[in-house]
């Protein structure tokens, strides 16, 4: 036998020895999951699973539509298993199973591996960290989000920024055109979050900002990478055109936030804490330099709320009876005064508006799905769940379970009247997730939405020539409509 054959045989033998264990594990996993859970038949190709219909040269619209189609193929199953090559995704969409991940004390708090694609950007942020690092950071930040005087201070910022935004909305009303309001809303929420979280005005509503453009573009690149498994390995991504653009944008974003943090630290002692304390200040006060990062609060707190407000305006424009009811509630709170700024006291009286916001977040949750990784193997309901498996909690579908929400596609804010809410299963409605890894900014977001929506509804009547069917769900981490949703503003004055 020539030496070359000997080398080839040695390589084959060592590969078999090296790969034997992982391959055996994959086969075991495939056998167990195929017997425990239904695999959607549509687009399924042996070995490759659903890979080609969820990744590659498909649009983000097709990606989400395929995902929905698979889930609805077995609409009575509490869990289905989607295969990305040999990588299983267990998609949970029935409430009784959610306790495993969402209940206090759950062991499975670590996010799924796809969140690591956000690592370079969000670094030590709350959203992606786990274990002790996450616990410490969460303990430090949480009190700020429950601090009533800090939240009341935020209302001042919402109003100031709205005074700028209202000029743009008034221009649109004068032009009497039906428009996609999202860019204006998103600029407002970005101005708000930068000022409240970082104490920095970025003037997104009035000026073109390199930082703002970088944040928007990097989100697009990351979602594109999520749909392109060949770009997951960091070294390959770095060499690609998208990877190089991603790194260039990261430099812009981190330079900006680093500068904000440095300025804030330098001026920390002179900041009038009672008046203008930002969430960043709680981190500066309690953490060491390299642990301070605010990018995740900024990112989580900007697009999610803009999307929720945009969807709410569309639903209000579609449902004129609901809009009239809302307008009456708001008029009675503000005593027909369309000009005065909104206060914390006003917000606390906006009960019907709260129902409208909640119902919008039910039908159109800004975060349509979240992911976790199973931390240790366990049995539940006669089924085996293996350590390391990726779990998808499909909020969009959970909110459409007819058992908890009869006629699920109907927009009905009365579902959130207190007497009906009390009877509902605690995990039937989870737009902010639930349990110890729930959204830290949910009170802030509701406050922000109420101030914005009540101010707009006081000044403008909303209409649209579109229908609910014009909403075509797609996902870019955040839920989007593939068709722009357009609303016309008509001045009430
Ligand atoms: C309507 C608006 C919002 C919605 C629907 C929303 C929804 C969510 C959801 C579903 C999660 C869980 C994510 C996961 O498990 O992967 C989350 C986490 C988070 N949210 Fe929000 N969010 C909103 C607004 C905000 C705001 C305004 C802030 C900050 C000011 C914020 C900060 C965060 C942070 C830091 C986390 C990570 C928490 C952790 O893992 O401990 N969110 N949000």
Mind explaining what this structure looks like?
With 493 residues, this protein is an alpha+beta fold. 55% of the residues lie in helices and 10% in strands. It has helices at residues 3-36, 51-54, 60-73, 95-102, 119-122, 131-146, 148-175, 182-198, 210-226, 234-239, 241-266, 273-276, 279-286, 295-318, 320-334, 344-348, 351-363, 395-398, 418-423, 442-459, and strands at 79-84, 87-92, 178-180, 370-373, 378-380, 383-385, 390-393, 460-463, 473-476, 478-481, 486-491. The protein has a four-stranded mixed beta sheet. A hairpin with a 2-residue loop joins β1 (79-84) and β2. The longest helix has 34 residues, at 3-36. The relative contact order is 0.14. The mean pLDDT is 88. Bound molecules: protoporphyrin IX containing FE. Protoporphyrin IX containing FE is lined by residues 111, 126-127, 138, 296-297, 300-301, 304-305, 308, 366-367, 370, 431-433, 437, 439-441, 444-445.
């Amino acid at each position: 036998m020539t030496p070359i054959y000997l080398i080839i045989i040695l390589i084959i033998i060592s590969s078999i020895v090296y790969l034997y264990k992982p391959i055996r594990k994959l086969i075991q996993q495939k056998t167990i999951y195929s017997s425990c859970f239904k695999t959607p038949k549509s687009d399924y190709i042996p070995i490759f699973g659903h890979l080609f219909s969820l990744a590659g040269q498909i649009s983000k619209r097709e990606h989400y539509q395929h995902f929905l189609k698979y889930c609805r193929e077995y609409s009575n199953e509490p869990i289905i298993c989607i295969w990305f090559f040999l990588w299983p995704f267990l998609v949970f969409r029935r409430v009784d199973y959610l306790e495993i991940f969402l209940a206090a004390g759950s062991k499975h708090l670590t996010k799924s591996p796809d969140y690591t694609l956000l690592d370079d950007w969000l670094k030590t942020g709350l959203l992606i960290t786990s274990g002790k690092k996450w616990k410490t950071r969460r303990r430090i930040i949480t009190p700020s989000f429950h601090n009533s005087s800090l939240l009341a201070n935020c209302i001042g910022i919402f109003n100031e920024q709205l005074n700028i935004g209202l000029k743009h909305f008034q221009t649109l009303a004068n032009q009497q055109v039906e428009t996609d309001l999202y860019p204006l809303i998103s600029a407002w929420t970005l101005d708000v979050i930068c000022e409240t979280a970082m104490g920095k005005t970025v003037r997104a509503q009035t000026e073109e900002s390199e930082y703002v453009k970088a944040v928007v573009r990097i989100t697009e690149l990351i979602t594109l990478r999520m749909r392109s498994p060949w770009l997951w390995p960091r070294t390959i991504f770095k060499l690609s055109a998208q990877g190089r653009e991603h790194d260039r944008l990261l430099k812009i974003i981190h330079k900006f936030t680093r500068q904000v943090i440095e300025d804030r630290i330098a001026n920390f002692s002179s900041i009038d804490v009672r008046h203008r304390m930002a969430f960043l200040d709680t981190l500066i006060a309690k953490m060491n330099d390299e642990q301070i990062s605010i990018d995740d609060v900024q990112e989580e707190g900007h697009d999610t709320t803009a999307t929720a407000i945009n969807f709410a305006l569309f639903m209000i424009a579609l449902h004129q009876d609901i809009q009239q009811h809302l307008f009456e509630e708001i008029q009675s709170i503000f005593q027909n005064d369309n000009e005065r700024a909104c206060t914390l006291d006003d917000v606390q009286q906006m009960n019907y508006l709260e129902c409208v916001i909640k119902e919008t977040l039910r039908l159109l949750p800004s975060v349509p799905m979240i992911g976790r990784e199973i931390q240790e193997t366990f049995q539940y309901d006669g089924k085996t769940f293996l350590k390391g498996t990726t779990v998808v909690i499909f909020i969009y579908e959970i909110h459409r379970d007819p058992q908890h929400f009869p006629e699920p596609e109907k927009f009905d804010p009365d579902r959130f009247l207190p007497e009906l809410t009390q009877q509902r299963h605690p995990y039937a409605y989870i737009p902010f997730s639930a349990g110890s890894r729930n959204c830290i900014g949910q009170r802030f977001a509701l406050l922000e939405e109420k101030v914005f929506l009540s101010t707009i509804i006081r000044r403008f009547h909303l209409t649209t020539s579109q229908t609910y069917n014009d909403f075509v769900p797609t996902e870019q981490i955040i839920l989007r409509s593939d068709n722009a949703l357009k609303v016309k503003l008509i001045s009430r004055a």
